[in-house]
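Subject: Protein record for review, amino acid sequence with backbone structure tokens
Concerning: The relation between a protein's sequence and the shape of its backbone.
How to read it: Take the token row as a discrete description of the fold.
Enclosed: The protein record, placed directly beneath this head.
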Amino acid sequence: MWSFGCIVAELFLGLPLFPGASEFDLLRRMIEILGGQPPDYLLKEAKNTSKFFKCIGSIHNMENGEISGGGRSAYQALTEEEYEARELKKPLIGKEYFSHKNLEAIVTNYPYRKNLPKEDIIKESQIRLALIDFLRGLVDFDPAKRWSPLQASKHPFVTGEPFTCPYRPPPETPRL
């Protein structure tokens, strides 16, 4: 579903949502655009966490993906300088295609078609709000929170129903 979300975003923007020139650059852009990093329980188990993050706190009380220490992550993404010092090479950083740095701003500020009547701009802005919500359900770092194909198929962005508030997908039925 993550890949599907990236494709949907690219079809709208005409460019990849996360156009990274290296693993470091890709992760940096994901964190920036999505407004957060992977949850601690994923970082704790990931094989390359130490390559891109530093441990800044205790994670011994972490259960069910909850962050210990008053809501703060036990991990912090490395800066370019920290990565270079640790890996002994400068990370490749690609071109910045978007003047805005978060998903909402990138989508809402994407240029409208020329000569679009005001009423169509209003409709288009509502569709963009639905698109943002749709993408948020697909490109969630936490695979347990990411929508399934069935859940995504019920979203107003897909069904064409009016979008009025954040979509709450129906629970998945357990497979036998």
